[in-house]
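Progress note, project year one: complex with glutamic acid.
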Amino acid sequence: MKRKNWKRIVVKVGSALISPNRKGCSSHYLLSIAQFIVKCRAMGTQVVLVSSGSVAAGAHQFPDGERSDITIKKAMAAAGQTEMIATWDRLFDFPSAQILLTHADLRDRERYVSIRDTIFSLLDHNILPIINENDTVTTDKLKVGDNDNLSAMVAAAADADALIICSDVDGLYDKNPHTHDDAILLSSVANIDQSIYAMAGGAAKGGVGTGGMRTKIEAAEKAVSHGIDTYIINGFTELSFNMLLNGKNPGTHFEAHEKPMAENEHWMRHTTRAQGEVIVESEFAPNLSDNAESLTSKEIIDVKGEFSVGDTIIVRKDDGTKLVKARSNYSSCLLNFIANQENEEFASEFEEQTGPIISKKNLANLEKE
Ligand code: GLU
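Model obtained:
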């Protein structure tokens, strides 16, 4: 691997590196990560840091028996976040800036664009953005839930060339390395398919942070489809960072797609979350991604969920086939109203005046899934 001329990278650091014993923050493992960031910047590579660790760092402020309570967890995040930022800030002699995000921010196009602008302004002024999920305000509906996926969304928003996920394992193994002595580390992955997910195993690893290998693969899948080379590396060893700086691959490299998705489609496909579904007749097959405007209330047989104008929906056939993920120009209430109209003329006149239900410019094709 030749050292790439990265213009911009996102480095994701897991909780286990920041607060290994859940007793506040420790700079033990952060020193080599900070050195790596300093060296990248000196070489002209802009860096965005996605740092977990607020919950783990804040844990010691609360009694042991209370820490699994969700309200206390939010308080742990609030208390740990300041400590975490202060710890990072001490390691740099340039300024850093804190950005706290929720999924509700990222899936709203206006807020997403504002986040992008802020990241770019900070980078233009040589300030290091340090991003985490705003765990204090999130609910299940609002959150991303793990910083692996968050880091991929941030990497896409920041137009990064590479995403480096610092983990507590060397990379992706073909089998669980904790239970199989003969497990082999995959040095590169060109195509993320079900066999790769199968190697990653179940949802969580039960350690200090939230994510496991599965969320790292999800993150890699999101990032590579946006043309972002993704690495899972062992963040506990300085060697990993020295290897990266020397153009060597210390872990698993997920290769960026050569023909990345356009930014808007990528955001729709990987960052938004569908709030509802519109079910159309199975015979309806107009290739919606090219003819989005051909979807009218006549083809709709059901509207599921509650959504507002501007929310993301999935359009699928009644046999289950997903067609597109798109911004709905109608609320679920209005769609129900026109789809259930007996007077078809009224419905089509109404739609003519109001405009198409979905539009080509706000859509991601799901037909190949
Ligand atoms: N946002 C969480 C925290 O700062 C971490 C989520 C994760 O471990 O992926 O504690």
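The longest strand covers residues 8-13.
Residues 15, 52-56, 77, 132-133, 135, 146-147, 209-211 surround glutamic acid (CB under 6 Å).
No further modelling is planned for this target in the current period.
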